[in-house]
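Notebook p. 47: complex prediction with glutamine.
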Amino acid sequence: MLTVRELLLRQDKGDISAEEIISECQKEVSIRDPLIKGFIYTSWQRAREKARQIDQDRARGGDRPPLAGIPVAIKDNLARSGEPMTCCSRFLKGFYPGYTATAVSRLEKAGAIIIGRTNMDELAMGSSTENSCYFPTHNPHNPDYVPGGSSGGAAAVVGGGLVPLSLGSETGGSIRQPAAFCGVYGLRPTYGRVSRFGLTAYASSLDQVGPLSGNLEDLWLVLKEMAGPDELDATTLKEPLKGPEDPDDWRIGLPREYLEHIQDPEISRRVQEIAAELEKAGVVVEEISLSDPTRALAIYSSIVPAEASSNLARLDGIRYGLQSDNNYETWEQFIRENRGKGLGEEVRNRIILGTKLLNPEGEEDFLARGQQARRELKEEMQAIFKEFDLILSPATPTPSFKMGSSPEHSLQRFMSDIFAIPASLTGLPALTVPAGLNSKKLPLAIQLMGPWGSEGRLLGLARLLERITGYGPVVNDTEREEPL
Ligand code: GLN
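Predicted complex, structure tokens below:
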């Protein structure tokens, strides 16, 4: 799959039409998605109509919209009017939202063409996309391995070269962790940078929409179109987005406590190698001390289930979702039956935990402690970014793991998000930067985390890294013989 920039250039030269791009994309998806299983829904007819419209407008002398004819896949928790949205939960099967997420409608307005919806862990809870009500998605680099999650489908279809770009969402790493596992870029924008309108809420004070792409420049092209204030989301930022900046006398912090949680020697070596390359290029890299990231994990584990329990209360089978046809005497029985049937175990567990956290009833108030610790974490980050321009760390403690090997205990499953969660809790932007393959040909990646509003800085350093390290995204678009 060509990059966004290349697809635009080719259209400008008259080498290819938007309609041809969509046909090519459809061909690729039909041949190769049976191996990856990244899509749960495709909308080729609608896509082709839109492409034809774009081609016709241009033939009549109209300007080329900034993302004309670019095929984009969206995660199944982003609403698009006229299309089912299930969040890969049995509970929401058959639900058609009557509105479109702002992030999606802005891309469409810019000429992008939504071609389908991608697989995810149910209601965005999980780290491997094995927790979808449909089927698991496979890692495009090795089908025995997971693509990460919860935006696993969105990462796999980009890492497999089916589309140049996808939209994911994250609460605690659901863009960055799968991007790392699939060898692509994945950006968590500053909280409020991209409107959450039309994104199914998980934990609203952390949720963000963000792009995944196999090319750095493309990330910027799409972020520019999506970002900005939206009257439908009161938390959106008014501050203008700054473009990629050149590292100039930058100081990069490498947190010791993060390095200690790496569980894979190849990741350790790659991080050190990248830090050394940066130093050679004249960027100062210094080891720093931050609070242990397991602390962030503990904070996350109190705040997130509590918010989820309250957000998902609307999934009662009355306002939304599966409705049991049995007769019940009480509302409580009715709702219990609906939720019990429709929601998967992971989701139910988190709702129960969250409900408990919201009603401590004489027990220790973990939620209040979590909120306090979250404030302290914010202060710690603010202080460190007074001295340092960015923080460099590994993206994950291990590369992708084998399907079916997720740890039993959900706290252990969270370990693969351990480096992602501090930015999520503090609202800071962070970027997964792919860093080549390991000896098993699985992707490795690092993470850059920046102060509030510093997307341009993240992209600037990533650009330098691509140039000096020779590592970069790894898109595997070779055909495989056997469907899975
Ligand atoms: N794996 C984490 C969780 O299950 C992150 C999910 C997310 O960011 N949506 O909560």
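Notes: The two ends are 22 Å apart (CA to CA). Residues 293-369 form one domain.
Next step: compare against the earlier run before touching the bench.
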